[in-house]
């Protein structure tokens, strides 16, 4: 089934103003009435008041995520998903064209024909001895006011009480396990994407069920560092990073948020096809990242090193 990846996430929150401002400061752009906040390619986060009648029901936990909507390639893919899901659950199609159901863990899902804009911006370029120069002579690799905006909704991470059962549901829809943390959960890639994962499942007690974090792709590690630094300077609190993951190889920087979950910047994720053999590793600090930095106030030579 040709699922390309995430199209948008929907949240129902206590403080709509604070959450929308957070995502604006993160780098998204508000459209329409301001409830939808988009990355450069049109993938988005939708933030509504938790009592809004348009929202799917809460899962009954602390999670504020109300719906995850995936992009599919075409109407044929949408019909294939509908046919599969109707075998054992209720499925509806809204006036917005979104096919909706609930997965085996209670997460509200949607599927729609992709509405992604071409970005048309080059990736971060580097110069390295032994290779052709990535940047032209006198072209700067970084500068103070360089753009560092989220490009595309990358992945979402769920806390689930039964990761095996959850994985089996998504396998029905063509998701493939690219790597796995033993006794924790799988990284899942939809068939229509080469990204290492757009969904990661983490085994937790039932009372924790919900979203752990979501992230948007940036144009490279410098953009992750630049956007994250600007975010800190706006007063937001770093949770984990910056650093680089082992499984997926993506650069990361996570932040606390008023949405009740973490929000990440990421860049340079591995790409895989069906010939890739999934790895299984024990979860630990050593297997979670290759290296980890910690943000501190800026410093200059000659200043107090402490």
Can you offer a commentary on this structure?
This protein has 306 residues and is of the alpha+beta class. The chain has one domain (3-117, 150-292): 2,3-Dihydroxybiphenyl 1,2-Dioxygenase, domain 1 (Roll). It contains five helices and 18 strands. It has helices at residues 16-26, 75-85, 163-172, 221-233, 285-288, and strands spanning 3-13, 29-31, 36-38, 44-49, 65-72, 92-93, 99-102, 108-113, 152-160, 176-182, 185-189, 199-203, 210-217, 238-245, 251-255, 262-267, 279-282, 289-292. The strands form two sheets. A ten-stranded mixed beta sheet has the order 17-10-11-12-9-13-16-15-14-18. An eight-stranded mixed beta sheet has the order 2-3-4-1-5-8-7-6, with helices on one face. The radius of gyration is 20 Å and the shape is globular. The chain starts with a strand and ends in a 14-residue tail after the last strand.
CATH top level is Alpha Beta
Helix content: 10-25%
Query: Quick one: how many beta strands?
Result: 18
CATH fold label: 2,3-Dihydroxybiphenyl 1,2-Dioxygenase, domain 1
- The H-level CATH homologous superfamily, spelled out, is 2,3-Dihydroxybiphenyl 1,2-Dioxygenase, domain 1
The main β sheet shows up as:
10 strands, mixed
How many angstroms separate the termini?
A: 55 Å
Q: Report the C-alpha radius of gyration, rounded.
A: 20 Å
Low-confidence stretches: none
SSE order:
EHEEEEHEEEEHEEEEHEEEEHE
Number of H/I helices: 5
Instruction: Identify the CATH architecture.
Output: Roll
Helix-strand category: alpha+beta
Sheet with most strands: strand arrangement: 17-10-11-12-9-13-16-15-14-18
Query: Strand portion, in percent?
Result: 25-35%
- Number of structural domains: 1
Quick one: overall form? Answer: globular
């Amino acid at each position: 089934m040709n699922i390309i990846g995430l199209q948008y996430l929907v949240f129902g929150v206590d403080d709509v103003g604070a959450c929308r401002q957070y995502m604006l400061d993160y780098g998204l752009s508000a459209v329409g009435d301001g409830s939808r906040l988009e990355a450069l390619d049109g993938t988005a986060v939708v933030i509504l008041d938790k009592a809004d009648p348009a929202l799917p029901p809460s899962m009954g936990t602390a999670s504020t995520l109300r719906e995850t909507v995936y992009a599919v390639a075409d109407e044929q893919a949408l019909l294939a998903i509908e046919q599969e899901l109707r075998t054992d659950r209720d499925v509806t199609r809204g006036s917005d064209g979104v096919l909706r159901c609930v997965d085996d863990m209670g997460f509200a899902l949607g599927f729609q024909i992709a509405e992604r804009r071409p970005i048309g911006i080059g990736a971060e370029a580097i110069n390295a001895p032994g290779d052709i120069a990535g940047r032209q002579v006198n072209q700067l690799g970084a500068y103070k006011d360089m753009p560092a905006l989220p490009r595309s909704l990358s992945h979402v991470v769920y806390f689930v009480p039964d990761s095996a059962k959850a994985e089996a549901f998504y396998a029905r829809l063509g998701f493939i396990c690219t790597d796995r943390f033993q006794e924790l959960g799988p990284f899942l890639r939809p068939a229509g994407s080469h990204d290492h994962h757009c969904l990661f499942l983490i085994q937790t007690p039932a009372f924790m069920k919900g979203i752990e974090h979501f992230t948007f792709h940036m144009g490279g590690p410098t953009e992750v560092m630049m956007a994250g630094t600007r975010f800190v300077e706006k007063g937001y609190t770093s949770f984990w990073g910056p650093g680089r993951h082992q499984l997926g190889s993506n650069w990361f920087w996570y932040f606390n948020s008023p949405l009740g979950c973490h929000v990440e910047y990421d860049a340079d994720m591995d790409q895989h096809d069906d010939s890739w053999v999934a790895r299984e590793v024990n979860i630990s600090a050593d297997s979670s990242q290759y290296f980890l930095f910690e943000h501190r106030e800026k410093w200059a030579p000659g200043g107090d090193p402490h």
